[in-house]
Design goal:
Helix content is 34%, strand content 23%. The protein starts with a strand and ends in a 5-residue tail after the last helix. The chain has 265 residues and is of the alpha/beta class. The strands form 3 sheets. It has an 8-stranded parallel beta sheet with strand order 6-9-8-7-12-10-13-11. A 5-stranded mixed beta sheet has the order 1-2-5-3-4, sandwiched between helices. It contains 10 helices and 15 strands.
């Protein structure tokens, strides 16, 4: 929830605020908490007092009004809205030079899904997240910050005008892989072949919209389309129980395969 009057973003949730305290306490302009969690933030209160910051104990109902959520877990920190950096060629060239993977979100509209993807990316050490400047794409919000469970402190979020132009710009320099239910190659097969070929180019992983997946324009510019194997086996037959995973769940599987399974075969 954004306080437009003071140009602030409410960060709520115990883990999110604790990671904010650990990594960027200077960002916190105001801190509010219930009596239950007050002892856990004594150090931060002392720092705010030293820096002439504001902190105060509030009832849970007041915190709900401040952050617009019942899931505040007893603490709300007000910060300046995080900067979303416009992506340029200098940044992508640095990724290529250093072998850094990145994730492109193609109109992920749900803030909770966005936050869960950020959490998974941070867990697996993928620190570059790209979002299109599109009304259908969720941005950094109170909900996404909370669901990320502190992950927002470990990633950089970049913006692009056109995902298609980005894919064309990094062609031959990064390997772009998009998720698609029509794909023939699994994420495991793709990763194994990439490693066996000693392919050193960093990856640009594209995750699509919750309802329609990645757009045709983006799909047509991907180097590879991959799928997560689905279904259960009964009497030797593969049966699909549901069409697909939630995009946040899928992202965790893909990140795990890419980061943790090079020697699995």
């Amino acid at each position: 929830m954004k306080n437009k009057r003071n140009n602030e973003l409410a960060v709520c949730g115990f883990a999110a605020v604790k990671k904010l305290e650990k990594n960027h306490p200077e960002k916190i302009k105001r801190l509010y908490f219930t009596s239950d969690v007050a002892p856990k933030f004594g150090g931060l209160c002392r720092k705010l007092a030293k820096d002439h910051g504001i902190y105060n104990q509030k009832h849970a109902e007041d915190l709900e009004k401040l952050c617009g959520s019942v899931h505040h877990q007893g603490v709300v920190a007000m910060i300046e809205p995080p900067e979303i950096i416009p992506l340029d060629s200098d940044i992508t060239e640095n990724w290529i030079e250093n072998g850094e993977n990145a994730v492109l979100l193609d109109r992920i509209g749900n803030a909770n899904n966005f936050g869960a993807i950020v959490r998974s990316a941070a867990f697996f050490g993928i620190k570059n997240i790209i979002i299109p400047l599109d009304e259908a794409q969720s941005s950094i919000t109170t909900s996404s910050y909370r669901v990320a469970e502190g992950g927002m402190e470990y990633v950089n979020v970049y913006s692009v005008q056109s995902p298609e132009r980005l894919l064309k710009a990094v062609k031959g320099k990064m390997i772009s892989i998009g998720t698609s239910l029509e794909a023939r190659k699994t994420i495991s097969e793709f990763n194994y072949r990439r490693i066996k070929k000693s392919e050193k180019k960093p990856l640009l992983i594209i995750l699509g919209n919750e309802e329609n997946g990645i757009s045709d324009e983006v799909k047509n510019n991907c180097d590879e389309l991959i799928i997560i194997p689905w279904g259960n086996y009964e009497n030797g037959q593969k049966e699909s129980l549901v069409d697909s995973l939630n995009v946040a769940q899928a992202s965790s599987i893909i990140f795990y395969e890419i980061v943790c399974c090079p020697e699995r075969f």
